[in-house]
Amino acid sequence: MDPRLDGDQGLMTATAAPGVHAPPGGPRRRLAAFLHRHARVRLSLLLSAPMAWLGAAYLGSLAALFVTAFWSVDTFTGNLVKEFTWANFRDIVTGEVYRTIALRSLGVAVLVTLIDLVIAFPMAFAMAKLASPRAQRWLVIAVLTPLWASYLVKAYAWRVLLSAGGVLGWGYGLGATVLTLSYLWLPYMILPIYAGLERLPNSLLDAAGDLGARGWRTFRTVVWPLTFPAVAAGSIFTFSLSLGDYIAVKIVGGSSQLIGNVVYDNIGAANNLPFAAAVATVPVVIMLFYLAAVRRTGALENL
Amino acid sequence: MNLSRTARALLWAALAGGLGVVYVPLLIVLLNSVNADRTFGWPPPGFTMRWWAAAWESGGVRDALVTSLQAAVGATAIALLLGTMAAFAVQRYSFFGRESVSLLIVLPIALPGIVTGIALNNAFRTVLEPFGVSLGLFTVIVGHATFCVVTVFNNVLARLRRLGASIEEASADLGADTFTTFRLVTFPMMRSALLAGGLLAFALSFDEIIVTTFTAGAGVRTLPIWIFENLFRPNQAPVVNVVAAALIILSVVPIYVAQRISGVEATTH
Q1: One domain for residues A40 and A154
Q2: What's residue A14's pLDDT?
């Protein structure tokens, strides 16, 4: 034992520290001691509220919604008919309209993700690897600030820009939706990629350079494989947020509807919750497949 | 790094161009808020503060702002509590299904907002309405808290991972019990992570519209809902634009606060 560490002295300091010592045997102290000894009890207490909220209430709501998708609505009374039926899903799969809308939504989500990736990667690379540390700080702020500006405000900005008399005046439609969604989710793509590039040691890039690799080859064989989890993390945002969106469509989309609009219209105007629920499972299933695929890359740790 | 001069120039150009695209639309909203032309004719024929005055007078805007603040404060408080608890459980213990907890917490923002929205709407109406509780501010807060937990969770988790448990063990060795250690050691070290997570949660809630649409009753109108309702009314356009401009200006505040936090971090670590 280290002679400089006097056991008694340590104990003295602990007892003398104000506010640290509760009277021994008090109920609070006994509870603390009990908790200290029983890690499992501590864990269950910590997990209780979050799991009750997210595990029971939220997952329960999702499950209930999924069950509703197999019900139907009485066309005359508008009441729920709680009998199992595949009718909603049959309508979605066989209905020409719904297939088109589902594919269109998927296409929009993929396109928005690709556009954002192509714009975000060079930006993030210049930020992480070319800018000086001082400039980096300011660039991160510059990318972060519009993220705090309201979603609606940004969609509205594009409505004004694209309106017939506006600065761009290109009009509304599917192209406007893709443009607006790409604009909205761009920072969500830049930030994870920037963080991923920050973690990528410069020495690896130098080593690739020393071994004779030019820029493109270094990118293809070193940078891209190592930052792919970060790219995947960013794509979760761009993909998922695009897939469920119906607000941007209402603001700039003109008449070309996405899945979200079908869900919305069936709840509001058509008052057909079972059908809305069935349609809503389409993006969820797509998203679950996407998350499962992306999880292998370690993207969830990069969020 | 073996980058040609052209490649460097192109990357810088991409960065400048990208930031330009990000900021120009916002600047145009700011300019339009003082545009003398009611329909935002471009270029503006002149400048006026009339619309700012009109927005200031608008009762609808004020009520919506108050509702939004109430919802955001409520949701943030719940998210802070649940997010911190979950982060401690996941970071300090190993148990069966730990991975799933992280996934479960990400789920509400990973799933499309409309799915969370109608699932909660359906659940609220089936479970709460028999007890006489109808959709209102309370259900909005519950809905927002559900997807806000993740921001606090992520921030606290990252902080706990960095801190390790040795300081807490030292505290316990010196005779402090579980509660005292939390109060005097753990909590002070987590404070800035809580502030950062809480700030994000607040902003997420303040901005949210989809889940809000489905969880707010008829009388509850948050600011995003108010903007959306008035977006398609031509005679309200200048006031909507002023609210948008004000929100753009206000978005600098959390950035400033976050910078202050990280500035303090940099000096204390």
Answers
A1: no
A2: 42
